[in-house]
Amino acid sequence: MASSQLVKVLIVDDDNFTRRIYKTMLFRFCFEITEVEDGKNAIQQFVDGNEYDLVLMDKHMPNMDGVEATRTLRGMGIPVKIVAITDDASSKDTFMDAGADKFLLKPLTFSMLTDILKSFNFLN
Amino acid sequence: MNIQDLQNLQLIQIASERIRNVERPRSVSSVSPFINNNSTILSSCGVLCLNPTQESINQEGNTQREKAMDVNMLQRTYSDLLTSLFREGILNQQFTELQQLQDENNPGFVYEVVSLFFEDAGRLINELISNFNQQAVDYKKIDAYVHQLKGSSASIGAEKIRSVCQTFREYYDKNDIQGCYNCIQPLNQEFVTFKSKLEALFTLEQQIVAAGGSIPMMRH
Predict the structure, then answer these.
(1) Comparing B61 with B156, which gets the higher pLDDT?
(2) Chains A and B: how many Cβ contacts under 8 Å?
(3) Residue B34: CB partners within 8 Å, gap ≥ 6?
(4) What whole-number distance in Å separates Cα of residue B128 and Cα of residue B139?
(5) Is B152 on the interface with A (CB under 8 A)?
(6) What is known of its domains (chain B) (predicted)?
(7) Rounded to an integer, what distance in angstroms lies between the CA atom of residue B81 and that of residue B98?
(8) Which chain A residue's Cα is nearest to B109?
(9) ipTM for the complex?
């Protein structure tokens, strides 16, 4: 868990619309939320010393896609929980091989998110 | 006119002012105190106090009944419109998910995200049309636009828009340029339809709230 008890989530998606929906869902749990638009900025968050408990990772993004970002984070030894959320069903194996913990198909629903959070014990 | 007449006139004016300014009794049981509190003035003027008061109660009751009927009618119209949007396949279950995310902490959430979608999708569709009209069409860029539009339409439950985007991408994967091109007009049409219907829905919501009602929640 990140240093404070508050669950910290990093949303990585190039669509501000999607980020808005995820934020609204996550606010229900009073989580601390950061959002970035691509994989490169996601990596930079960790390089800057920020800690997160959970990353919601899109696949298709400019600069660096979600698979590459996931692989890079694992290569850096970052143990954060990474949930791939994409409409590209064919990318599941690629994402899991890169080190993602879970793979979900868009659109994300509130119940899908709740199940994921429960599975990671973030709702205690 | 003598002094007594003048005094009576003054009393009548005072009584009229009081009747106008005092909070109107909202029920039969509150009439008696109202009359009692003003009886000296009213009886001094020889004014028949019961009927005007009763009339004002009736008027108030009628106004409230009319208001309730207006709210009911608006709510029914709203429910009918929303049901038709699902029945026609314009919206899917994801829209209901968004409605369920709206609460006292996010009172205008659905309106906000749908407005964002109108802006984003409108821009993307304009870019698509503009790109297709160029000499050298950049299909990779077009595919990226459609991909983005597919994602956002799926996120808000704009099913028909999402579906046309899906069809486009299938043509794109098969390098069927004509097929891609044939999707643009339907995409624009679906967007225009979606926008006008959702705007009508939001207008009804505003009217319901302004009339003191609550937005019906529907399960689909």
Answers:
(1) B156
(2) 49
(3) B22, B25, B53
(4) 10
(5) yes
(6) Histidine-containing phosphotransfer domain (HPt) contains an active histidine that mediates the phosphotransfer.
(7) 17
(8) A24
(9) 0.77
